[in-house]
């Protein structure tokens, strides 16, 4: 059993990425594992002056990541990159200097967009940041998901056309997590 933190880069109530993330963790490949969504919407804007006295939502995020075996990032694409709210969360949990909770945590990057490239450029920017943070990140398969009718079924699972591929992605990610367990 692995403990996985799920960080969704959209705060929007009807977020496609949030709906997708909720369906992703219900796939059979995730059975027996514990998935917890990070609350990044309560975080203040990052201000380095606050490093010595981090706000409660920052401490909560850091506690969640520190206690997880791996992290799944589910990101939309905003202007060919990943959203600022996600970068804000990443920056918070990387500080104070030397006390990043990201280091060494296996990561999976996946994302949904309405555009044909399915958040590919957002994911590439995010991978660059995760490499700097020393997070071993699943390389393949890449998962650039375009939002379409039927991607998520009315009962909140991944639709049959995508379930095999997305389930395979999750399986590979959980294997990566296993390889990095002590
Ligand atoms: C977008 N969107 C978008 N889509 C895309 O494929 N490439 C892009 O560069 C952008 N840029 C962009 C900027 C901003 C500020 C917004 C609000 C939106 C569209 C985006 O994919 C769409 O709004 C998704 O629905 C956002 O994800 P959630 O909130 O549904 O998870």
The strand line-up of the biggest sheet is 2-1-3-4-5
Total individual domains: 1
Continuous helix count: 5
* Alpha-carbon distance between the two ends: 13 Å
Radius of gyration: 16 Å
Helix content: 25-40%
Assigned CATH superfamily: Flavodoxin domain
Described by its quaternary structure, the protein is single chain
Name every ligand kind in the structure.
Answer: ligand FNR
Rounded mean pLDDT is: 97
At the fold tier of CATH, the topology name is Rossmann fold
- The arrangement of helices and strands along the chain is EHEHEHEHEH
Number of strands: 5
* Content-based structural category: alpha/beta
Major beta sheet summary: 5 strands, parallel
Give the overall shape, derived from the CA principal axes. globular
Detailed description of the structure:
With 182 residues, the protein is of the alpha/beta class. It has a single domain (3-179), classed as Flavodoxin domain (Rossmann fold, 3-Layer(aba) Sandwich). The chain contains 5 helices and 5 strands. The chain has helices at residues 16-24, 56-66, 84-93, 120-132, 160-179, and strands spanning 3-8, 34-37, 70-74, 107-113, 144-146. A 5-stranded parallel β-sheet has the order 2-1-3-4-5, with helices on both faces. The protein is globular. The two termini are 13 Å apart. The mean pLDDT is 97. The chain binds ligand FNR. The site of ligand FNR has 13 residues, from helix 1.
